[in-house]
Amino acid sequence: xxxxxxxxxxxxxxxxxxxxxxxxxxxxxxxxxxxxxxxxxxxxxxxxxxxxxxxxxxxxxxxxxxxxxxxxxxxxxxxxxxxxxxxxxxxxxxxxxxxxxxxxxxxxxxxxxxxxxxxxxxxxxxxxxxxxxxxxxxxxx
Length: 141
Hints:
This protein is α+β, with helices and mostly antiparallel strands. Helices cover 48% and strands 13% of the residues. The chain has one domain. It has helices at residues 19-22, 33-37, 44-47, 51-56, 72-89, 100-108, 113-133; strands at residues 4-8, 26-30, 67-70, 136-140. Strands 2-1-4-3 form a 4-stranded antiparallel beta sheet. Helix 5 packs antiparallel against helix 7 (113-133). The longest helix is centred in the last third of the chain and has 21 residues, at 113-133. It is globular, with a radius of gyration of 15 Å.
């Protein structure tokens, strides 16, 4: 299936956690590549400022059977970190040791600048939905 993010009304135990059973519970979904790759090019010491973004990395070791469930409280923190990381990459906030221009260049990769901003906006909108609805975030690697 590839990388995917679903905003789900509630957690499902592994025995019930098939896509067909989750479908009625899904409030929104998107390919979350920028979210999962945000801190991949950030030095380890600076990653401590973004613990949930660090946990969302595919190679973080936090995934169980290629799934990472984040409860409603973690969804709030993830949204805050995602917004902060965007501000840093846009030079609207400062983190010692991070160069905003290079950070954004590595994060965006070959994606068109406007398309990348739209993608980030859609991810942020879904995370806002999760916080409003007190829903869970499911990341699939």
